[in-house]
Write a structure and sequence with these properties.
Blueprint: H1 5-14, H2 18-31, H3 36-48, H4 52-65, H5 70-82, H6 86-99, H7 104-116, H8 120-133, H9 138-150, H10 154-167, H11 172-184, H12 188-201, H13 206-218, H14 222-235, H15 240-252, H16 256-269, H17 274-286, H18 290-298, H19 307-323, H20 327-343, H21 345-348, H22 353-365, H23 368-372, E1 387-390, H24 397-405, E2 410-414, H25 418-423, H26 438-453, E3 463-467, H27 475-481, E4 486-491, H28 494-502, H29 518-538, E5 542-547, H30 548-553, H31 555-565, H32 572-575, H33 577-584, H34 618-627
Parallel strand pairs: 1-3, 1-4, 2-3, 4-5
Helix pairs in contact: 1-2, 1-3, 2-3, 3-4, 3-5, 4-5, 5-6, 6-7, 7-8, 8-9, 9-10, 10-11, 11-12, 11-13, 12-13, 13-14, 13-15, 14-15, 15-16, 15-17, 16-17, 17-18, 17-19, 18-19, 19-20, 22-29, 24-33, 28-29
Amino acid sequence: MNNDPISIALELHQAGRPDEAKSQCREILRQDPFHPAAWNLLGFLQHQDGDDEGAIDAFQSAISAKPDFADAYFNLGNIFRLRGGLPDAEAAYRKYLTFNPKDAAVQMSLGIVLQEQGKYTGAAPLFREVLLQQPNNADARNNLGYVLKSLGRYEEAAKTLRSALDLDPNSAERHNNYGTVLRDLRQFEEATAAFRQALRLKPDFIEAQNNLGHALFDMGELDAALAAFNHALEIRPNDIDSYINLAGVGERANRLDIAKFAIDGGLKISPEDPSLHLIAAKCERREGETESAIERLQRIDLATARDIIAIDIAFELGQLFDKSDKAQQAFAYFSKGNELSQQFPAHREINKADFLNLTDAVDAHLSEEWLATWSNLSPPSDALAPAFIVGFPRSGTTLTEQILAAHPKLRTLDEKPTLDTMLTQLPSYPNSLAHLSDAQAAELRAIYFSAVGEFIDLEGDARIIDKMPLNIIHAVSMQRFFPAAKLILVMRHPCDSCLSCFMQNFVVNSSMANFFSLEDTAALYVKVMRLWQKSARLLALNYHIVRYEDLIADFESETRKMLNFLELEWDPAVADYAAKARQRGKIDTPSYHQVTQDIYQSAKFRWKRYRDQFESVKPALEPFVEEFGYSWD
């Protein structure tokens, strides 16, 4: 046996005699209070004993005795991570890596800590560095895929998660993770296949079962989705997440009976669950029980609710107070919801300037001089020309799309990334629009229609209506690729559009990240609508304006004008568009609960109740109010 005191302590530890090992460490420290290895081993033993506070003190004492003691930093980082002290764990791992910069295990640990804090841009390079050293590390590929997914880089995430799956094809977890990013890519059939494979490998995999339900709902298969969530409850009858998912889908699908059933079942298990109370409040609001919904949600402490739920609750309280005609309280809750959303870790990684810069780039190129440099393209068949619904968000585009969706000779797309799929294939957008060849243009049109075909049936002679509000900035591309395309511009009082965007809890991307304040919202409105005015002036656009206020005031007359523009006859089904919307099962936009009702009147000129809040943005919006035929009165 080695007579070195610290070696004796290590041998006692390895022999499974921890109490004697701790006594030996303490004896060493009695003789030498600055013995780093003794402090480090004592810390490890105390952690094994469940004394994490003592372990932290011991590791910190080891570092005080020897500031370059890398192992103590590593052990300290592990303790902090296990206790949820992620910033402290991050600092400890970073310090360790200053001494051992190529240690893949600690790079992995630091990457996970950054990932858990929502610091995705910092985590990604660490996982990539691990993969340079360990190309077959499936966990590193999986974590990198998750980070890329969280950054909205779905295509890259899918490839990375697929590579993790290829390394570990019998892992149900890998199939499930791959399915989640396929769902983000709206490849719903492939996503359901991935979730089903996960369940074949692990039949009681509750997370995959719930994800399968969501993917089926995304596909519009409501009955199958409900069956999936019910099966999740058969697997684990007291699973609160399954009740939440069933309730949420019931509410979104306008099946309040199902939502209430799931809420009641879930609250029996977890009476204070904030997610269930939130869905219950939404149901109450939709049934006119506004005060009850407010009382329910105000009992929840936003400071203790999970981040994303706190955001949802704040926005819902804003909607409830707005419905109660209490503008000041409503605006305060909308402001709180936007503040929480802006601070949400994943949202902090999203750069609102990306969309602003894209808009500026289109604006900078669009000029008579640039248009004069365009190559001549052979016009495609008019039969290939879709119609586009555009406008500033929350201007009535969803209502317009739902009305047209009821017409039997139209097939509509509700905010699908079809045009983006085409434009991202251009090497330099918008500059490369100028010098396209016929072959390139035809290939890009084929990409567009392939993307369209992911969502609707292209067989037959029904016309395509492609609704994506902010595609308004791409009018120049619509003109370039589809010169016979008809555009429907949906317009609303600028203040109402901006207010509604500020009030809406959007899925955040680089465009929606501009709605966290009323000032930023107004600035985006100015940028987008100025570009539209320029596009309409310089391009030979064939467009028709639908004014939201006119549409809800005289539905049939305005709808007939729109159908005449599309060269279609009136059809009685259009008058009952709300019934058709209910049959569709799932509406992807924030207006899902409005468009399934009769004409929604209460949002008309809502901004007037918030007149005081608009004083700061009046100089920016006033020119558009006047130019578009509205007023401040």
